[in-house]
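2024-03-11 09:14:02 DEBUG pipeline.ingest accepted 1 chain
2024-03-11 09:14:02 DEBUG pipeline.ingest length=654
2024-03-11 09:14:03 DEBUG pipeline.predict start
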Amino acid sequence: MPVPSDSPPYPARPVQPDASVPSLVIVGAGPRGTGLLERIAANAPDVYGGSRLDIHMVDPYPAGAGRVWRYEQSPLLWMNSMAEDVTMFLDESVECAGPIRPGPSLAQWAERVRAGSISPPPELAGEIGELRADGFPSRRVQSAYLGWVYEQAVAALPPGVRVHRHPYRAVRVTGPLDGRQRVWLDGVAAPLTADLVVLALGHLDSEPDPEQRALSAFAARHGLVHLPPGYTADTDLSALRPGQTVIVRGFGLAFIDLMVLLTEGRGGRYESDARGRLTYRPSGREPLLHVGSRRGVPYHSKIGYGWTGERTPLPRFFGPAAVDQLLAGPGPLDFRRDVWPLIAKELGYAFYHRLFTAHPERTRVNWPDFEEKYAAAAPASAELDALVNDGVPDPADRFDPDALDHPLSGLRFPDEESFQRYLCDYIQADLDRRADPRHSPDLAVFLALLAVYGQLVRIIGSGRLTARSRIADLDGWWHGFFSYYASGPPAPRLRQLLALSRAGVVRFLGAGLTVEADRERGVFRASSPGVPGKVEATALVEARLPGPSVHRSRDRLLRSLAEDGAGGEEMLRDGDHLLPTGLLAVDPADARLIGRDGRPHPRRLALGPHTNGRAYAAFARPRTNAPAFRQNDATARAVLAFLGERPGTARLSA
């Protein structure tokens, strides 16, 4: 599959706005832009009345899907969520001012396709026909769903509100604070004019940081291959040769995509025996992958069963009242000291509520007594540890976030082969546990993590966290822990990983991975303190997404905003120093861009993972009060209210 061009084939001339009609330009027609459009359609009758309005959607990639979820990518790449856990529509759980307009989840959409009420691309008919609610669809199926959602959002707009698609790349925004804005498109002389501009740019690439530039320069000098952080589906992997020894730094979802594209994507195949055990049959075109990371293990497998029985009453210890108390206290907040103990107690409560109510035979005391003492015990205290040790006899039935976060801590292996066997057993045990409802407290923790994320938005928006804690603890450690526990790969991917290990295509490096550039030998070298020996390689792949950076962004629009001073990188004060987060600074109240002068721009807004607005996922699990949905609704209402007050707004006749 070719790497997407930075200059897609554009139409000859875009449709220019009518200056007499209020206009909104949304840069980014992917899932976030589509979600905003849906909220505009839902709120327009109440907030905007009968005004005419032109909405201009600017994106070189397909509407609805955008770049990441576009149809034109390998059919081997899957979603990381079950079909029943993906929706673009609000439900009764979402706390917002606008009306709720329910719609189908991805699984329900697939049911409508099978019933004949929706026509998918013909080449997807077979996959959708076999897709179950608990199945993991390909990204191309998600692309079709997102495209359909976009079409529904456009169709739901009231009369007089028109949508214009511009399949171009926006490269700059200019205009005064108190006047219409101009959105410049790549290769087009005349800009689009707008009363308001919303940036919904999605996930963006960044230029390599100094460390990555040094590694690339080393590779160039010695004839090696270095692939810096990036989106695996968009990375040119042709430089990795058959049989070449490759060090892979990163064991998360980017690695899983890499693994797929370099094995099945190069003609390998899997065979399954009567017991379901996979054997990998190489094509001979695969490189040899040596993979490691800080933890040294892959992300936990997705849980393979659903919830039954009594629901855990969440939140309990990290809900609105607890956040109010934290924010009412004096002084700055430290995430590890002030916030994490409450989160850990919330997660533990979810775990033990499920254990005591669904599996009481594995406990020593009754739940009401345990719950009362658990609530009274201080977070992260010896009293709490003693309570758990007395009430839960089997250590495997205790919630231990430190052990979860450092599964290889303190382990030393006599040789490399011992570690290979150990890690294969570890992965198999994880697969077994995540498929066994006897361990349903794990699912309770997963649901609690989702609830915690919603509460954290308030703490981040308050600005009370210290700069170093925000960057190192929240954006660094916490986000990584959440992804490791709750955002791992589908179980079949880890079964494939085990088959690749048995076939000798993948080797495990260990925890605490270090990578060196050996100038004397002209190779990359990787090692782990827990595993003897070192691996030399002629290729290094950084299997992770690029970190956010306004100034190093490859998006010309984002860089130009920073250069013009109209949209700056968020800077956090740490004593006498300012620390950059890499994120585009926006006003947490209404998502308006913060300029270099510290003032919010009245006519420019931004939503998405490139901002400090903190709602990462553009789509969500149903019934989780998703922060992105709440932001979309609030932004849509603010946009419509502003445009409705525009002088000379043309009203439709009754």
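2024-03-11 09:14:41 DEBUG pipeline.report The first strand starts at residue 23 and ends at 27.
2024-03-11 09:14:41 DEBUG pipeline.predict end
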